[in-house]
Amino acid sequence: MTVGFIGLGAMGAPMAERVVKAGFRTFTTFHKRREAADALAALGATVVDSPAEVARLADAIITILPADAELEEVTLGKGSLAEGFSPGKILIDMTTATASTLLEIEGALAPRGVRILDAPVSGGTTGAAAGTLTIMAGGDSALLEECRPLLESMGRVIHVGGVGQGKVVKIVNQMMAAVHLLAIGEAFALGIRSGADPHTLYSVIKESSGYSKMMDLRLPGFLLEGSFKPGFKLDLMKKDVNLALASARGQNVPLLLTSVAGSVFSAASAAGKGSDDFSAAAAFLAGLAGVEIA
To answer: What residues form DSSP beta bridges with 116?
Structure first.
């Protein structure tokens, strides 16, 4: 199987590197900056001029893009994958986007014989580099098995249902991660203001009912050290929370806690934290009480 890879950002670049190192002949392209594409070429990938050319050359094309608009442009716009697709080709979309957008893309491409897998990921840049991502795969089970060796070069695959369900599960995960993170910021602010040591809070709550995995992911190395070098940028989490809110409006589902989380992430972004790790939102929230978690 030859592979196309489009979207060499903070997540996509290390994922594409895993694919190349797994032995898949890989084609890629670039939009504005070609440094990431050149780095992948140094490992053995081939850089071509457009998404359309990637689609002509590869059997399976992976996309991992910032959001819905970029996904639509790359798949259906001018010079897009659609111009190079032929019957039997596979689109594996790993973007965190809305299910409705991917279903519209499937509606446009499936009549041309293009097969679609929906496969967003969780695990951050560390998981992308290590090949330990959780891949939430939606689509036909036989197609998933055909693509499993490719996907498993990047992480652990879980089949979650049909096309679009990967997006649903990922958005639910992101909204819970956002709320859990902000709960840490708010709760630790109260504990520290009341005299508790943050390391003691972490060690005790880790063994108690208030624990969530987010404590392990964003207290050591981030909040407890006051270090916010991005593993996953705050503005990306803000985008994901807003995707959840948009999806909920379409389904007439009230998201009260997630709405508050969206406001906090927007405020932290407006305060200049958008390029920091998303854990900076918890520090921002604690800072409203005049508390530093570190």
So the answer is: 91
Q: Is 170 a catalytic residue?
A: yes
CB neighbour list of residue 61: distance below 8 Å, 6 or more residues apart = 3, 4, 5, 6, 54, 55, 81, 89, 90, 91, 92
Distance, in Å, from the CA atom of 53 to the CA atom of 79, rounded to the nearest integer, reads 8
> Do the Cβ atoms of 19 and 3 come closer than 8 Å?
yes
In the chain, helix, strand, coil percent, each to 5? 55, 15, 30
The conformational region for residue 195 under phi > 0 = left, psi -120 to 50 = alpha, else beta, is: left
Element (H, E) at 148: helix 141-152
CA distance linking residue 32 with residue 9, whole number of Å: 12
Domains of the chain: residue spans and CATH: 3-162 (3.40.50.720), 168-287 (1.10.1040.10)
pLDDT tens readout for residues 19-75: 999 999 999 998 878 899 999 999 999 999 999 999 999 999 999 999 999 999 999
Contact 241, 255 (CB under 8 A): no
Catalytic residue among 167, 170, 238, 273: 170
What one-character-per-residue DSSP string does 207-251 give?
TSTT--HHHHHHIIIIITTT----SSBHHHHHHHHHHHHHHHHHH
- pLDDT tens digits for 213-239? 999 999 999 999 999 999 899 999 999
* Nearest-angstrom CA–CA distance, 24 and 202: 43
CA 225 vs CA 147, 188, 228, 234, 289: distances in Å: 41, 14, 9, 17, 19
pLDDT digits (tens, 9 = 90+) for 61-111: 999 999 999 999 999 999 999 999 999 999 999 999 999 999 999 999 999
Predicted TM-score (pTM) of the model is 0.90
172 is written with which tokens? 């639910």
Please give the Cα distance from 85 to 108 (Å, whole number).
12
Burial of 213-222, coded b for 16+ CB within 10 Å and e otherwise, reads: ebbebbbeeb
